[in-house]
Amino acid sequence: MSTLAHEFVVGQRPEISVTLASAQVAVVEGDPGTIRVEAEGDDRDLGFLDVYQAGDTVTVRARKGGRFWGRRGTEVRFAVPSGTMCTARTASGDFRVAVPLSDVEIAAASGDVYLTAFSGRARIKTASGDLTIGEASGGLQIGTASGDVRVDVVDGDAVINAASGDVAIGSATGTVTVKTASGDVAIRCFAGTDLNGASMSGDLDIGLAEGMAIDSDIQTRSGGFRNLVDKGTDAPTIEATMHLVTMSGDITLR
User: Fold this and answer.
1) Which of 10, 81, 91, 206 could form a disulfide with 21 if both were Cys (CB 3.0 to 4.6 A apart)?
2) Distance between CA 91 and CA 52 in Å, rounded?
3) Residue range(s) defining the domain that contains residue 86
């Protein structure tokens, strides 16, 4: 195994652009004003790797001819300032980010994606890989096929479209739209202004924050409906709308 290392000086709007196949990608917090890139793999794979800077953007990509780049367990590591923007295209490799980012655009095939936090706009597409986000405090758009989606905190607007994957949200204070086919949807605590949930055969399980006044529209064709919410005695402090629809899935409010 060989190691390749580069260090770049960047300005106020740093960005990384990544286009790789099966390599494992890790992004950690580095020093302000600097982006460092390290790649570890065999000499042949590293020979197909392009690493360069244009303005405040540092690009890492496999050159033409390196179609199966990273198939031998190659790993690419970035050390970036907090608030860096990120654009990534990956195939089977995992993409793990342990530093808060700003704007994010990621397209992944079978690899898993993990983001600790972001504060800008995020657009993420996955096929069979799972997606985990710690804190989403900007606008979030997610599209996934069979992968599961987990978001611990949504503090903004979120639109999530899933096929067979499950969707789990810890807490949400913005506008949330979730659509699934067979996947289940669970929101532990919704305290936002607008919730739209739709599923074919998946279940919807929604926990409501205390003090909510809900203008709701709930429909299910062959599934069951349970309302387990305690009736509060105080005046509502949050007003929201909620539209939930399933075909055969159950709907539960807590």
Assistant:
1) 91
2) 21
3) 1-99
Q: How many CA atoms lie within 13 A of 203 on its CB side?
A: 12
As a whole number of angstroms, the distance between CA 124 and CA 30 comes to: 24
Whether 120 maps to a domain, the answer reads no
224-248 per-position pLDDT tens digit: 999 999 876 677 788 999 999 999 9
Tell me which of 45, 80, 99 is where a domain ends: 99
Phi and psi at residue 55, to the nearest 5°: 65, -130
Residue 55 domain flag:
yes
CA atoms within 13 A on the CB side of 73: 2
3-state secondary structure the chain: CEEEEEEEECCCCCEEEEECCCCEEEEEECCCCEEEEEEEECHHHHHCEEEEEECCEEEEEECCCCCCCCCCCCEEEEEECCCEEEEEEECCCCEEECCCEEEEEEEECCCCEEEEEECCEEEEEECCCCEEEEEECCEEEEEECCCCEEEEEECCCEEEEECCCCEEEEEECCEEEEEECCCCEEEEEECCCEEEEEECCCCEEEEECCCEEEEEEEEECCCCEEECCCCCCCCCCEEEEEEEEECCCCEEEC
Q: If you search the block for the tokens 């000086």, which residue do you land on?
A: 9
Tens of pLDDT, residue by residue over 170-212, are 999 999 999 999 999 999 999 999 999 999 999 999 999 988 9
pTM above 0.85, yes or no: yes
For 195: left if phi > 0, alpha if psi spans -120 to 50, otherwise beta; the answer is beta
Distances (CA, A) of 76 to 39, 116, 233: 4, 18, 56
CB 186 within 8 A of CB 169: yes
